[in-house]
Amino acid sequence: LLARQERWESSARAYPRRLPIAIAEAAGSFVRDLDGNVFIDFLTGAGVLSLGHNHPELVRAVTDQLGRLTHGLDFPTPAKDAFSEAQLSMLPPGLRDRMKVHFCGPTGANAVEAAVKLCKTATGRGDVLAFQGSFHGSTHAAMALTGSVAQKRPVANGLPGVHFFPYSYCGRCPLDLVRDTCTTNCVSYLERSLRDGNAGIASPAAVILELVQGEGGVVPARGDFVRRVRALTSELGIPLIVDEVQTGCGRTGTWFAFEQYDIEPDVIVASKALSGIGSPVSLILYHQRLDTWAPGAHSGTFRGNQLAFAAGTVAVGIVRRDRILDNVRQRGEQIADLLAGLREHPWVREVRGRGLMWGVELADPADGRPAGALAARVQARALRNGLIVELGGREDCVVRILPPLNVTAEVVETACAILIAAVEQSSP
Ligand code: PMP
Q1: Which of 15, 269, 272 to mutate to test ligand 1, by most ligand atoms within 8 A of the CB atom?
Q2: What is the pTM of this model?
Q3: Cofactors per UniProt (predicted)?
């Protein structure tokens, strides 16, 4: 199958290049390839399969919905009503009554585009501020807001009015020339640029922020950074968009990551794990004061995936009933403990994570350069030993894991042992 795909599929295919397996079937935290090899799947469909593969209750929700109604455009339907109610019910109580929902196309990028467009409509302004190292999607505007040059180099992608600022990536940001001595130069720089009429930035329509950069290499934002960005944007009347496409739906231990920062965003972007089973859906939740779109101002065909709505409503129920967020926090602490020893390894620069989103950053001890080639070897060796992991960050030097949120302690233990061995055996 890999050879057949090589013949007919676009050269843009990504995952099978580094993870050369053809998947036959999957259940829970495991996938089986065509040769019968079983792997622990800590990629989980790029963070989509939050309750593991083929969760039986989600399968039932989808099959029950099939035959009743599969696609509903933006008409009201019972499945959509229940899903919207479930999503709003997961917001902090103070925010719940003030937010509106807008369903977007099937992917995260669709919702990012919608968020930015809404803020432009609501403010009548055009500039957007984004952060270095960010990833917001592969469509034109979402890519233009993506701070990682490697992601967009081949298309000379850019949009006028997009400005990048340093993210709180301490020790690696251009404003932090002496490692670990800076705390908040990034926000001071942002603040001065916004207040300085000569900085070349008109009052922006929005600031878009990932609370943990995922594709950027699992970089959690510092608390003081996020709170100051929020205070500044509130003071200046700039809507703050949090891109929770990857961090949302429980991934970091709260339903949304912003809850851990004690802030209220103006717009929340969500997608990946909303249905829990990979049935595509994306949405923005936004403060009602931004509700300025005229009817039909942002339409799209695929905004009524009833299968995703049906599964997503059940997924929220399971998260509550099975105390999945507790599991995310406990398994996250377990991973932190298990991987702690790696910090002493000469090629490991940092082990970082929140909840069930972790990264091991590899760097050459001689010169501190990102060790992307080593990360690729670690990924290949982990695969040979039965664990699927992903890469990210600068030159793909961060080995990333996104386990299912209901993963067991036993699976975490086995997977971490494979990962640690892969780092130790692959290093020079
Ligand atoms: N935002 C973030 C934070 C993401 O991680 C991703 C996908 N990795 C996207 C947006 C884009 O989502 P999609 O691939 O579904 O368009």
Answers
A1: 272
A2: 0.97
A3: pyridoxal 5'-phosphate
Per-residue model confidence (pLDDT) at position 175: 80
pLDDT at 157: 63
Tokens found for residue 171 = 């020790």
- Residue to mutate (ligand 1; options 148, 211, 246; most atoms within 8 A of CB): 246
208-246: burial string, b at 16+ Cβ within 10 Å, e else: bbbbbbbbbbbbbbbeebbebbbebbeeeebbbbbbbbb
pLDDT confidence of residue 91: 98
Whether residue 245 has its Cβ less than 6 Å from ligand 1: yes
User: Kind and range of the H or E element at 128?
Assistant: strand 128-131
What pLDDT sits at residue 177? 65
Q: Using CA atoms, how far apart are residues 219 and 352, in angstroms rounded to an integer?
A: 7
Check if the beta carbon of residue 61 is closer than 8 Å to that of residue 311. Answer: yes
Neighbours of 180 (CB within 10 A): 8
Nearest Cα neighbor of 332 from 346, 347, 351 is: 351
Distance CA 237, CA 21 (A): 49
- Atom 7 (ligand 1): residue with closest C-alpha? 137
Query: What count of other Cβ atoms lies within 10 Å of the Cβ of residue 147?
Result: 21
Q: Domain segments of the chain: what residues?
A: 2-55+323-426, 60-321
Whether 113 lines ligand 1, by a CB cut-off of 6 Å, is no
Secondary-structure percent of the chain, ordered helix, strand, coil, rounded to 5: 40, 20, 40
Ligand 1 atom 1, closest CA: 136
Contact, 25 vs 33, CB < 8 A?
Answer: no
196, two tokens = 């300085």
Listed as ranges, residues in the chain with pLDDT below 70 are: 151-157, 176-181, 183
Residue that is written with structure tokens 């593991």 in the block: 52
Does 137 sit in the ligand 1 pocket, CB within 6 Å?
A: yes
In words, the CATH class of domain 2-55+323-426 is alpha beta
